[in-house]
Amino acid sequence: MTTAAERAALASISLEEPWSLIERFTTLRREHPRDVRTAADEIVGRLRRLGVPVEVHEPEIFLSLPGKASVRVGSKTYRAKPLAMSRSVPEGLTAPLVFCPTEFDPNTDQVIGGPRGVDTVDVRGKIVVAEGFGMSSMALHFDRRGALGLIAVNPGKNAHWGICSTIWGSPDLRDLPRKPTLVVVSVNSPDGQALMQLAKDGCEVSLFAELEEGWYASPVPVVTIPGTDEPDQFVLLHGHYDSWDFGIGDNAVGDATMLEVARVLWQHRSALKRSVRIAWWPGHSTGRYAGSTWFADHFAIDLYEHCIAQVNCDSPGCRWATEYIDVAWMSEAESFAQAVIKEVTGKAARGERPYQAGDYSFNNIGISSYFMLLSTMSPEDRASKGYYTVGGCGANIAWHTEEDLIEIADRNILVTDMKIYLLAIMAAANATIAPFDFQRTVDEFGATLAKYQTAAGTVYGFDRTRSALADLRLALQQFGAFAGTLASLPVGDLRVRRANHAIRRLARLLVPVNYTTGANFFHDPAEQVPPLPDLAPALEIPKISPDQRGFYRTHLTRGENRLVAALRDARATLSDAMA
Length: 579
Prior knowledge:
alpha/beta, Aminopeptidase, Glucose Oxidase, domain 1, 3 domains, 6-stranded mixed β-sheet, 16 strands, globular
Protein backbone atom coordinates (compact mmCIF):
# COMPACT_ATOMS: atom_id res chain seq x y z
CA MET A 1 0.00 0.00 0.00
CA THR A 2 1.17 3.49 -0.76
CA THR A 3 1.88 5.96 2.03
CA ALA A 4 0.26 9.37 2.33
CA ALA A 5 3.49 10.99 1.13
CA GLU A 6 3.62 8.72 -1.91
CA ARG A 7 -0.03 9.40 -2.75
CA ALA A 8 0.60 13.14 -2.54
CA ALA A 9 3.59 12.84 -4.85
CA LEU A 10 1.65 10.73 -7.36
CA ALA A 11 -1.15 13.30 -7.37
CA SER A 12 1.41 15.94 -8.35
CA ILE A 13 2.26 14.27 -11.68
CA SER A 14 1.51 16.60 -14.58
CA LEU A 15 2.06 16.44 -18.34
CA GLU A 16 2.83 20.15 -18.68
CA GLU A 17 6.63 20.04 -18.38
CA PRO A 18 7.27 16.58 -19.83
CA TRP A 19 5.09 17.08 -22.90
CA SER A 20 6.72 20.42 -23.56
CA LEU A 21 10.13 18.70 -23.61
CA ILE A 22 8.81 16.04 -26.00
CA GLU A 23 7.52 18.73 -28.34
CA ARG A 24 10.92 20.45 -28.25
CA PHE A 25 12.67 17.20 -29.07
CA THR A 26 10.50 16.76 -32.17
CA THR A 27 12.55 19.62 -33.62
CA LEU A 28 15.97 18.32 -32.54
CA ARG A 29 17.79 15.30 -33.94
CA ARG A 30 20.07 14.00 -31.22
CA GLU A 31 22.82 11.93 -32.85
CA HIS A 32 25.76 14.28 -33.36
CA PRO A 33 27.48 15.63 -30.21
CA ARG A 34 26.61 19.23 -31.11
CA ASP A 35 22.89 18.35 -31.17
CA VAL A 36 23.24 16.22 -28.06
CA ARG A 37 24.72 19.22 -26.28
CA THR A 38 21.73 21.32 -27.35
CA ALA A 39 19.44 18.63 -25.92
CA ALA A 40 21.40 18.59 -22.64
CA ASP A 41 21.09 22.38 -22.42
CA GLU A 42 17.35 22.00 -22.92
CA ILE A 43 17.04 19.48 -20.05
CA VAL A 44 19.33 21.46 -17.74
CA GLY A 45 17.59 24.76 -18.50
CA ARG A 46 14.19 23.30 -17.66
CA LEU A 47 15.45 21.77 -14.42
CA ARG A 48 16.95 25.07 -13.30
CA ARG A 49 13.81 27.00 -14.25
CA LEU A 50 11.87 24.57 -12.05
CA GLY A 51 14.29 25.21 -9.20
CA VAL A 52 15.79 21.71 -9.29
CA PRO A 53 19.58 21.78 -8.72
CA VAL A 54 21.52 19.95 -11.42
CA GLU A 55 25.22 19.21 -11.88
CA VAL A 56 26.58 18.82 -15.40
CA HIS A 57 29.62 16.61 -15.95
CA GLU A 58 31.66 16.97 -19.15
CA PRO A 59 33.29 13.61 -19.93
CA GLU A 60 34.98 12.71 -23.19
CA ILE A 61 33.53 9.46 -24.53
CA PHE A 62 34.31 7.41 -27.62
CA LEU A 63 31.59 7.67 -30.28
CA SER A 64 30.96 6.54 -33.84
CA LEU A 65 28.73 8.82 -35.88
CA PRO A 66 27.11 7.27 -38.96
CA GLY A 67 26.61 9.31 -42.12
CA LYS A 68 25.61 8.17 -45.59
CA ALA A 69 25.68 4.61 -46.91
CA SER A 70 24.61 2.73 -50.02
CA VAL A 71 24.90 -0.63 -51.75
CA ARG A 72 25.59 -0.70 -55.50
CA VAL A 73 25.24 -3.60 -57.87
CA GLY A 74 25.96 -2.55 -61.45
CA SER A 75 23.86 0.53 -62.17
CA LYS A 76 21.44 -0.17 -59.30
CA THR A 77 21.88 1.63 -55.95
CA TYR A 78 20.15 0.51 -52.75
CA ARG A 79 19.65 2.81 -49.78
CA ALA A 80 21.43 1.68 -46.62
CA LYS A 81 22.23 2.84 -43.09
CA PRO A 82 25.73 2.32 -41.68
CA LEU A 83 25.82 0.91 -38.18
CA ALA A 84 27.80 2.83 -35.58
CA MET A 85 31.33 1.43 -35.00
CA SER A 86 31.34 -0.01 -38.53
CA ARG A 87 34.45 0.49 -40.64
CA SER A 88 34.15 3.66 -42.70
CA VAL A 89 34.64 3.26 -46.47
CA PRO A 90 33.55 6.49 -48.16
CA GLU A 91 35.63 5.47 -51.20
CA GLY A 92 33.75 2.19 -51.44
CA LEU A 93 34.52 -1.49 -50.93
CA THR A 94 33.94 -3.96 -53.76
CA ALA A 95 33.89 -7.72 -53.29
CA PRO A 96 31.84 -10.82 -54.20
CA LEU A 97 28.41 -10.93 -52.57
CA VAL A 98 27.49 -14.11 -50.72
CA PHE A 99 24.22 -15.05 -49.04
CA CYS A 100 24.52 -16.67 -45.63
CA PRO A 101 21.44 -18.30 -44.07
CA THR A 102 20.74 -17.41 -40.44
CA GLU A 103 18.28 -18.53 -37.81
CA PHE A 104 16.72 -15.09 -37.71
CA ASP A 105 13.18 -15.06 -36.34
CA PRO A 106 11.47 -11.65 -36.51
CA ASN A 107 9.08 -12.69 -33.74
CA THR A 108 11.77 -13.27 -31.12
CA ASP A 109 14.17 -10.79 -29.58
CA GLN A 110 17.34 -11.14 -31.63
CA VAL A 111 18.27 -7.46 -31.75
CA ILE A 112 21.36 -7.80 -29.54
CA GLY A 113 22.27 -11.45 -29.26
CA GLY A 114 21.89 -12.81 -32.77
CA PRO A 115 21.36 -14.32 -35.17
CA ARG A 116 24.57 -15.84 -36.47
CA GLY A 117 25.18 -17.32 -39.88
CA VAL A 118 25.77 -20.97 -40.55
CA ASP A 119 29.45 -21.94 -40.57
CA THR A 120 29.35 -23.90 -43.83
CA VAL A 121 29.38 -20.80 -46.06
CA ASP A 122 32.84 -19.45 -46.90
CA VAL A 123 32.63 -15.70 -46.25
CA ARG A 124 36.35 -14.86 -46.29
CA GLY A 125 37.11 -11.81 -48.39
CA LYS A 126 33.44 -11.41 -49.29
CA ILE A 127 30.49 -9.18 -48.47
CA VAL A 128 27.77 -11.13 -46.69
CA VAL A 129 24.05 -10.46 -47.04
CA ALA A 130 22.03 -12.07 -44.25
CA GLU A 131 18.75 -11.61 -42.43
CA GLY A 132 18.97 -9.91 -39.03
CA PHE A 133 19.71 -6.56 -37.42
CA GLY A 134 23.50 -6.69 -37.81
CA MET A 135 24.18 -5.63 -34.24
CA SER A 136 26.70 -7.00 -31.75
CA SER A 137 26.99 -10.77 -31.99
CA MET A 138 25.95 -11.02 -35.62
CA ALA A 139 28.58 -8.55 -36.80
CA LEU A 140 31.24 -10.08 -34.55
CA HIS A 141 30.47 -13.54 -35.90
CA PHE A 142 31.09 -12.54 -39.53
CA ASP A 143 34.06 -10.36 -38.60
CA ARG A 144 35.78 -13.32 -36.95
CA ARG A 145 35.10 -15.47 -40.00
CA GLY A 146 36.92 -13.06 -42.29
CA ALA A 147 34.08 -11.24 -44.05
CA LEU A 148 34.89 -7.80 -45.42
CA GLY A 149 31.35 -6.51 -45.06
CA LEU A 150 27.88 -7.35 -43.81
CA ILE A 151 24.57 -6.24 -45.30
CA ALA A 152 21.97 -6.91 -42.61
CA VAL A 153 18.49 -7.39 -44.03
CA ASN A 154 15.99 -5.92 -41.57
CA PRO A 155 12.46 -7.37 -41.55
CA GLY A 156 10.40 -4.25 -42.34
CA LYS A 157 9.94 -1.44 -44.82
CA ASN A 158 12.46 0.74 -42.98
CA ALA A 159 16.04 -0.16 -42.18
CA HIS A 160 16.93 0.43 -38.52
CA TRP A 161 19.87 2.39 -37.20
CA GLY A 162 22.02 0.69 -34.61
CA ILE A 163 25.53 -0.15 -33.46
CA CYS A 164 27.54 -3.20 -34.48
CA SER A 165 30.16 -3.31 -31.71
CA THR A 166 30.06 -5.67 -28.71
CA ILE A 167 32.31 -3.27 -26.79
CA TRP A 168 30.41 -1.84 -23.82
CA GLY A 169 31.09 1.88 -23.54
CA SER A 170 34.36 3.57 -24.40
CA PRO A 171 36.92 0.83 -25.15
CA ASP A 172 39.68 -0.07 -22.73
CA LEU A 173 42.81 -2.02 -23.70
CA ARG A 174 41.03 -5.34 -23.22
CA ASP A 175 38.18 -4.28 -25.48
CA LEU A 176 40.10 -2.93 -28.46
CA PRO A 177 40.71 -6.34 -30.12
CA ARG A 178 36.92 -6.67 -30.48
CA LYS A 179 36.53 -3.39 -32.35
CA PRO A 180 34.83 -4.23 -35.68
CA THR A 181 37.03 -4.35 -38.77
CA LEU A 182 34.28 -5.01 -41.31
CA VAL A 183 31.76 -2.68 -42.95
CA VAL A 184 28.22 -3.16 -41.61
CA VAL A 185 25.09 -1.61 -43.10
CA SER A 186 21.37 -2.24 -42.76
CA VAL A 187 18.83 -2.40 -45.60
CA ASN A 188 15.08 -2.85 -45.57
CA SER A 189 13.36 -6.10 -46.37
CA PRO A 190 12.39 -5.48 -50.05
CA ASP A 191 15.91 -4.36 -50.96
CA GLY A 192 17.40 -7.15 -48.89
CA GLN A 193 15.37 -9.79 -50.68
CA ALA A 194 16.65 -8.46 -54.00
CA LEU A 195 20.24 -8.50 -52.75
CA MET A 196 19.91 -12.05 -51.45
CA GLN A 197 18.80 -13.15 -54.90
CA LEU A 198 21.72 -11.29 -56.51
CA ALA A 199 24.09 -13.07 -54.13
CA LYS A 200 22.72 -16.42 -55.26
CA ASP A 201 23.38 -15.30 -58.84
CA GLY A 202 27.05 -14.73 -58.00
CA CYS A 203 27.14 -10.93 -58.29
CA GLU A 204 29.78 -8.52 -57.09
CA VAL A 205 28.71 -5.61 -54.88
CA SER A 206 30.13 -2.27 -53.76
CA LEU A 207 29.52 -0.92 -50.24
CA PHE A 208 29.82 2.76 -49.37
CA ALA A 209 29.68 3.85 -45.74
CA GLU A 210 30.67 7.16 -44.15
CA LEU A 211 31.31 7.30 -40.40
CA GLU A 212 33.15 9.70 -38.12
CA GLU A 213 34.60 8.44 -34.85
CA GLY A 214 36.66 9.73 -31.96
CA TRP A 215 36.49 11.16 -28.45
CA TYR A 216 33.78 13.77 -27.93
CA ALA A 217 32.92 15.94 -24.95
CA SER A 218 29.35 14.99 -24.01
CA PRO A 219 27.32 16.47 -21.13
CA VAL A 220 25.95 14.22 -18.36
CA PRO A 221 23.30 16.09 -16.31
CA VAL A 222 22.76 14.64 -12.83
CA VAL A 223 20.15 15.69 -10.27
CA THR A 224 20.64 14.72 -6.62
CA ILE A 225 17.63 15.02 -4.32
CA PRO A 226 18.94 14.48 -0.77
CA GLY A 227 17.14 12.27 1.69
CA THR A 228 16.36 13.53 5.15
CA ASP A 229 17.44 10.53 7.24
CA GLU A 230 20.15 8.68 5.32
CA PRO A 231 21.33 11.00 2.54
CA ASP A 232 24.48 9.02 1.72
CA GLN A 233 22.39 6.09 0.39
CA PHE A 234 20.61 6.59 -2.95
CA VAL A 235 18.46 5.09 -5.68
CA LEU A 236 19.70 5.81 -9.22
CA LEU A 237 17.14 6.57 -11.96
CA HIS A 238 18.64 6.99 -15.41
CA GLY A 239 18.08 6.95 -19.17
CA HIS A 240 19.60 8.20 -22.39
CA TYR A 241 18.82 11.50 -24.07
CA ASP A 242 20.70 10.97 -27.32
CA SER A 243 18.75 9.17 -30.02
CA TRP A 244 18.54 8.06 -33.62
CA ASP A 245 16.93 10.90 -35.58
CA PHE A 246 14.23 12.60 -33.45
CA GLY A 247 13.74 9.49 -31.33
CA ILE A 248 10.50 10.41 -29.58
CA GLY A 249 9.62 6.88 -28.42
CA ASP A 250 13.30 6.12 -27.84
CA ASN A 251 13.91 8.05 -25.73
CA ALA A 252 12.33 11.52 -25.54
CA VAL A 253 9.48 10.01 -23.53
CA GLY A 254 12.00 8.63 -21.03
CA ASP A 255 13.76 11.98 -20.77
CA ALA A 256 10.42 13.63 -20.12
CA THR A 257 9.55 11.04 -17.48
CA MET A 258 12.80 11.65 -15.61
CA LEU A 259 12.27 15.41 -15.83
CA GLU A 260 8.84 15.06 -14.21
CA VAL A 261 10.07 12.62 -11.55
CA ALA A 262 12.84 15.12 -10.71
CA ARG A 263 10.32 17.96 -10.45
CA VAL A 264 7.90 16.04 -8.25
CA LEU A 265 10.55 14.56 -5.97
CA TRP A 266 12.17 17.94 -5.49
CA GLN A 267 8.76 19.38 -4.59
CA HIS A 268 8.26 16.53 -2.10
CA ARG A 269 11.88 16.19 -0.98
CA SER A 270 10.99 16.49 2.70
CA ALA A 271 9.25 13.11 2.33
CA LEU A 272 12.38 11.33 1.02
CA LYS A 273 14.27 9.38 3.67
CA ARG A 274 17.14 8.45 1.35
CA SER A 275 18.49 10.25 -1.66
CA VAL A 276 17.57 9.90 -5.33
CA ARG A 277 19.92 10.58 -8.21
CA ILE A 278 18.58 11.10 -11.71
CA ALA A 279 20.99 11.02 -14.65
CA TRP A 280 20.60 11.61 -18.39
CA TRP A 281 23.13 9.79 -20.58
CA PRO A 282 24.74 10.70 -23.91
CA GLY A 283 26.47 8.07 -26.03
CA HIS A 284 23.83 5.37 -25.67
CA SER A 285 23.21 5.06 -29.40
CA THR A 286 26.55 5.92 -30.96
CA GLY A 287 28.79 4.70 -28.13
CA ARG A 288 27.08 1.53 -26.88
CA TYR A 289 26.11 3.04 -23.49
CA ALA A 290 29.24 5.20 -23.28
CA GLY A 291 27.61 7.82 -21.02
CA SER A 292 26.33 5.44 -18.36
CA THR A 293 29.59 3.48 -18.56
CA TRP A 294 31.59 6.65 -17.93
CA PHE A 295 29.45 7.33 -14.86
CA ALA A 296 29.85 3.75 -13.64
CA ASP A 297 33.62 4.07 -14.07
CA HIS A 298 34.12 7.48 -12.48
CA PHE A 299 31.66 7.09 -9.60
CA ALA A 300 32.31 3.39 -9.11
CA ILE A 301 33.23 3.46 -5.43
CA ASP A 302 30.33 5.71 -4.50
CA LEU A 303 27.98 3.39 -6.39
CA TYR A 304 29.58 0.33 -4.80
CA GLU A 305 29.23 1.67 -1.27
CA HIS A 306 25.96 3.58 -1.41
CA CYS A 307 23.67 2.70 -4.34
CA ILE A 308 20.51 0.88 -3.23
CA ALA A 309 19.27 0.06 -6.74
CA GLN A 310 19.51 1.25 -10.32
CA VAL A 311 16.37 1.85 -12.38
CA ASN A 312 16.54 2.34 -16.15
CA CYS A 313 13.99 4.49 -18.00
CA ASP A 314 13.74 3.73 -21.72
CA SER A 315 10.70 4.06 -24.01
CA PRO A 316 7.84 4.51 -21.51
CA GLY A 317 4.51 5.96 -22.57
CA CYS A 318 4.35 4.82 -26.20
CA ARG A 319 1.17 4.33 -28.20
CA TRP A 320 -0.78 1.08 -27.74
CA ALA A 321 1.66 -0.01 -25.01
CA THR A 322 -0.92 -0.96 -22.39
CA GLU A 323 0.58 -4.18 -21.01
CA TYR A 324 3.36 -4.88 -18.49
CA ILE A 325 4.86 -8.10 -19.75
CA ASP A 326 8.50 -9.05 -20.22
CA VAL A 327 9.49 -6.21 -17.86
CA ALA A 328 13.16 -6.42 -16.93
CA TRP A 329 13.98 -7.03 -13.27
CA MET A 330 16.43 -9.06 -11.27
CA SER A 331 14.87 -11.82 -9.21
CA GLU A 332 15.31 -10.06 -5.88
CA ALA A 333 13.34 -7.05 -7.19
CA GLU A 334 10.48 -9.03 -8.73
CA SER A 335 7.93 -8.85 -5.89
CA PHE A 336 8.59 -5.16 -5.31
CA ALA A 337 8.32 -4.21 -8.99
CA GLN A 338 5.16 -6.26 -9.45
CA ALA A 339 3.58 -4.60 -6.42
CA VAL A 340 4.38 -1.11 -7.72
CA ILE A 341 2.88 -1.82 -11.14
CA LYS A 342 -0.19 -3.42 -9.55
CA GLU A 343 -0.67 -0.43 -7.25
CA VAL A 344 -0.60 2.07 -10.12
CA THR A 345 -2.35 0.13 -12.89
CA GLY A 346 -4.26 -2.69 -11.21
CA LYS A 347 -2.54 -5.07 -13.63
CA ALA A 348 -0.44 -8.13 -12.94
CA ALA A 349 3.03 -7.68 -14.42
CA ARG A 350 5.29 -10.38 -15.81
CA GLY A 351 9.03 -10.02 -15.94
CA GLU A 352 12.15 -11.45 -17.45
CA ARG A 353 15.86 -11.62 -16.83
CA PRO A 354 17.44 -8.29 -17.88
CA TYR A 355 19.28 -8.38 -21.17
CA GLN A 356 22.87 -7.22 -21.47
CA ALA A 357 21.57 -3.96 -22.91
CA GLY A 358 19.79 -0.74 -22.05
CA ASP A 359 22.45 1.11 -20.01
CA TYR A 360 22.68 -1.74 -17.50
CA SER A 361 26.25 -0.57 -16.97
CA PHE A 362 26.32 -1.47 -13.27
CA ASN A 363 26.24 -5.28 -13.21
CA ASN A 364 29.97 -5.59 -12.62
CA ILE A 365 29.60 -3.35 -9.58
CA GLY A 366 26.80 -5.59 -8.33
CA ILE A 367 23.67 -3.42 -8.04
CA SER A 368 20.13 -4.74 -7.84
CA SER A 369 18.19 -3.53 -10.85
CA TYR A 370 14.69 -3.23 -12.22
CA PHE A 371 13.05 -1.86 -15.35
CA MET A 372 14.55 -1.13 -18.74
CA LEU A 373 11.63 -1.06 -21.12
CA LEU A 374 8.33 -0.91 -19.24
CA SER A 375 4.92 -0.85 -20.96
CA THR A 376 4.49 -2.67 -24.25
CA MET A 377 1.84 -3.88 -26.69
CA SER A 378 0.06 -7.14 -26.14
CA PRO A 379 1.20 -10.02 -28.37
CA GLU A 380 -2.25 -10.05 -29.94
CA ASP A 381 -2.03 -6.36 -30.81
CA ARG A 382 1.44 -6.78 -32.29
CA ALA A 383 0.27 -9.75 -34.37
CA SER A 384 -2.77 -7.88 -35.66
CA LYS A 385 -0.50 -5.08 -36.89
CA GLY A 386 2.02 -7.47 -38.44
CA TYR A 387 4.77 -6.10 -36.21
CA TYR A 388 8.08 -7.87 -35.65
CA THR A 389 10.13 -7.67 -32.46
CA VAL A 390 12.16 -4.51 -31.84
CA GLY A 391 14.12 -3.19 -28.89
CA GLY A 392 12.00 -0.27 -27.67
CA CYS A 393 9.21 2.21 -28.44
CA GLY A 394 6.68 0.03 -26.65
CA ALA A 395 7.03 -2.50 -29.52
CA ASN A 396 6.27 0.08 -32.24
CA ILE A 397 8.43 -0.78 -35.25
CA ALA A 398 9.22 2.91 -35.71
CA TRP A 399 12.05 2.12 -33.25
CA HIS A 400 15.44 3.39 -34.52
CA THR A 401 13.89 4.78 -37.70
CA GLU A 402 12.93 8.17 -39.09
CA GLU A 403 9.28 7.39 -38.23
CA ASP A 404 9.87 7.59 -34.45
CA LEU A 405 8.00 10.88 -34.21
CA ILE A 406 5.55 12.46 -31.78
CA GLU A 407 2.66 10.18 -32.77
CA ILE A 408 4.58 7.32 -31.11
CA ALA A 409 4.05 8.98 -27.71
CA ASP A 410 0.72 8.55 -25.89
CA ARG A 411 -0.27 11.10 -23.24
CA ASN A 412 -2.38 8.79 -21.08
CA ILE A 413 0.04 5.88 -21.13
CA LEU A 414 2.90 8.27 -20.38
CA VAL A 415 1.16 9.57 -17.26
CA THR A 416 0.65 6.00 -16.05
CA ASP A 417 4.26 5.06 -16.67
CA MET A 418 5.52 8.22 -14.97
CA LYS A 419 3.56 7.22 -11.89
CA ILE A 420 5.09 3.74 -11.95
CA TYR A 421 8.59 5.19 -12.12
CA LEU A 422 7.89 7.74 -9.41
CA LEU A 423 6.48 5.15 -7.01
CA ALA A 424 9.20 2.62 -7.83
CA ILE A 425 11.85 5.19 -6.91
CA MET A 426 10.18 6.78 -3.92
CA ALA A 427 9.11 3.52 -2.27
CA ALA A 428 12.61 2.05 -2.57
CA ALA A 429 14.19 5.19 -1.14
CA ASN A 430 11.76 5.25 1.78
CA ALA A 431 11.54 1.56 2.70
CA THR A 432 12.80 0.93 6.21
CA ILE A 433 14.32 -2.32 4.97
CA ALA A 434 15.30 -2.41 1.29
CA PRO A 435 12.49 -4.22 -0.58
CA PHE A 436 14.61 -6.92 -2.20
CA ASP A 437 14.00 -10.62 -1.61
CA PHE A 438 17.17 -12.59 -2.24
CA GLN A 439 15.38 -15.84 -1.48
CA ARG A 440 13.99 -15.46 -5.00
CA THR A 441 17.54 -15.04 -6.29
CA VAL A 442 18.59 -18.23 -4.54
CA ASP A 443 15.56 -20.00 -6.00
CA GLU A 444 16.62 -18.79 -9.46
CA PHE A 445 20.15 -20.09 -8.83
CA GLY A 446 18.73 -23.45 -7.79
CA ALA A 447 16.62 -23.78 -10.94
CA THR A 448 19.57 -22.80 -13.12
CA LEU A 449 21.85 -25.26 -11.36
CA ALA A 450 19.36 -28.09 -11.80
CA LYS A 451 19.30 -27.47 -15.55
CA TYR A 452 23.08 -27.42 -15.72
CA GLN A 453 23.38 -30.59 -13.64
CA THR A 454 20.99 -32.44 -15.92
CA ALA A 455 23.17 -31.53 -18.88
CA ALA A 456 26.43 -32.36 -17.10
CA GLY A 457 25.22 -35.80 -16.02
CA THR A 458 28.03 -37.80 -14.45
CA VAL A 459 30.78 -35.72 -16.06
CA TYR A 460 30.59 -33.05 -13.36
CA GLY A 461 28.64 -32.68 -10.12
CA PHE A 462 27.67 -29.37 -8.51
CA ASP A 463 27.43 -30.72 -4.96
CA ARG A 464 29.42 -27.86 -3.46
CA THR A 465 27.10 -25.26 -4.97
CA ARG A 466 23.98 -27.11 -3.88
CA SER A 467 25.29 -27.23 -0.32
CA ALA A 468 26.21 -23.54 -0.30
CA LEU A 469 22.78 -22.63 -1.73
CA ALA A 470 21.03 -24.63 0.99
CA ASP A 471 23.04 -22.85 3.68
CA LEU A 472 22.33 -19.43 2.18
CA ARG A 473 18.62 -20.21 1.79
CA LEU A 474 18.39 -21.01 5.51
CA ALA A 475 20.31 -17.86 6.43
CA LEU A 476 17.98 -15.76 4.25
CA GLN A 477 14.93 -17.23 5.99
CA GLN A 478 16.41 -16.30 9.34
CA PHE A 479 17.36 -12.86 8.09
CA GLY A 480 13.85 -12.29 6.75
CA ALA A 481 12.39 -12.98 10.19
CA PHE A 482 15.01 -10.74 11.78
CA ALA A 483 14.35 -7.90 9.33
CA GLY A 484 10.64 -8.13 10.09
CA THR A 485 11.36 -7.11 13.68
CA LEU A 486 13.01 -3.91 12.44
CA ALA A 487 10.16 -2.62 10.27
CA SER A 488 8.86 -0.17 12.88
CA LEU A 489 12.27 1.32 13.70
CA PRO A 490 13.59 4.61 12.29
CA VAL A 491 15.62 4.43 9.09
CA GLY A 492 18.67 5.76 10.93
CA ASP A 493 18.62 3.07 13.62
CA LEU A 494 21.95 1.21 13.71
CA ARG A 495 20.26 -2.19 13.36
CA VAL A 496 18.31 -1.00 10.32
CA ARG A 497 21.45 0.43 8.75
CA ARG A 498 23.32 -2.83 9.30
CA ALA A 499 20.49 -4.85 7.77
CA ASN A 500 20.37 -2.61 4.70
CA HIS A 501 24.13 -2.73 4.36
CA ALA A 502 23.84 -6.52 4.33
CA ILE A 503 21.22 -6.38 1.55
CA ARG A 504 23.45 -4.14 -0.54
CA ARG A 505 26.33 -6.51 0.14
CA LEU A 506 24.25 -9.45 -1.10
CA ALA A 507 23.76 -7.62 -4.39
CA ARG A 508 27.48 -6.88 -4.67
CA LEU A 509 28.19 -10.60 -4.27
CA LEU A 510 25.34 -12.27 -6.17
CA VAL A 511 24.67 -9.95 -9.12
CA PRO A 512 28.18 -10.34 -10.64
CA VAL A 513 28.19 -14.15 -10.47
CA ASN A 514 24.80 -14.23 -12.18
CA TYR A 515 25.31 -11.54 -14.84
CA THR A 516 29.03 -11.17 -15.56
CA THR A 517 32.09 -13.12 -16.57
CA GLY A 518 34.66 -10.35 -16.27
CA ALA A 519 36.36 -8.68 -13.35
CA ASN A 520 34.50 -6.29 -11.07
CA PHE A 521 34.50 -2.71 -12.37
CA PHE A 522 35.21 -3.82 -15.94
CA HIS A 523 32.38 -4.29 -18.44
CA ASP A 524 31.29 -7.48 -20.14
CA PRO A 525 30.60 -7.44 -23.90
CA ALA A 526 27.19 -6.43 -25.20
CA GLU A 527 26.17 -10.03 -25.72
CA GLN A 528 23.52 -11.94 -23.85
CA VAL A 529 24.90 -13.48 -20.64
CA PRO A 530 23.36 -16.79 -19.49
CA PRO A 531 22.42 -17.30 -15.84
CA LEU A 532 25.38 -18.26 -13.66
CA PRO A 533 27.56 -17.80 -16.75
CA ASP A 534 30.67 -19.50 -15.35
CA LEU A 535 28.69 -22.75 -15.11
CA ALA A 536 26.77 -22.38 -18.38
CA PRO A 537 29.29 -24.48 -20.42
CA ALA A 538 27.74 -27.48 -18.67
CA LEU A 539 24.97 -27.26 -21.29
CA GLU A 540 27.52 -28.21 -23.96
CA ILE A 541 28.63 -31.43 -22.27
CA PRO A 542 26.12 -33.72 -24.03
CA LYS A 543 27.68 -32.70 -27.36
CA ILE A 544 31.40 -32.90 -26.54
CA SER A 545 33.78 -35.77 -27.17
CA PRO A 546 35.28 -37.74 -24.25
CA ASP A 547 38.71 -36.17 -24.73
CA GLN A 548 37.22 -32.69 -24.12
CA ARG A 549 35.72 -33.53 -20.74
CA GLY A 550 38.84 -32.64 -18.78
CA PHE A 551 38.78 -29.09 -20.13
CA TYR A 552 35.14 -28.70 -19.14
CA ARG A 553 35.76 -30.10 -15.65
CA THR A 554 38.59 -27.61 -15.20
CA HIS A 555 36.44 -24.69 -16.31
CA LEU A 556 33.48 -25.71 -14.17
CA THR A 557 35.69 -26.21 -11.12
CA ARG A 558 36.97 -22.66 -11.41
CA GLY A 559 33.50 -21.30 -12.08
CA GLU A 560 32.09 -23.17 -9.10
CA ASN A 561 34.87 -21.78 -6.90
CA ARG A 562 33.83 -18.25 -7.82
CA LEU A 563 30.17 -18.98 -7.17
CA VAL A 564 30.61 -20.91 -3.92
CA ALA A 565 32.86 -18.19 -2.51
CA ALA A 566 30.17 -15.59 -3.25
CA LEU A 567 27.44 -17.73 -1.68
CA ARG A 568 29.50 -18.35 1.46
CA ASP A 569 30.40 -14.68 1.75
CA ALA A 570 26.71 -13.82 1.41
CA ARG A 571 25.82 -16.19 4.23
CA ALA A 572 28.54 -14.70 6.42
CA THR A 573 27.25 -11.21 5.64
CA LEU A 574 23.79 -12.14 6.90
CA SER A 575 25.18 -13.74 10.05
CA ASP A 576 27.16 -10.60 10.85
CA ALA A 577 24.07 -8.41 10.32
CA MET A 578 22.04 -10.48 12.78
CA ALA A 579 24.79 -10.73 15.42
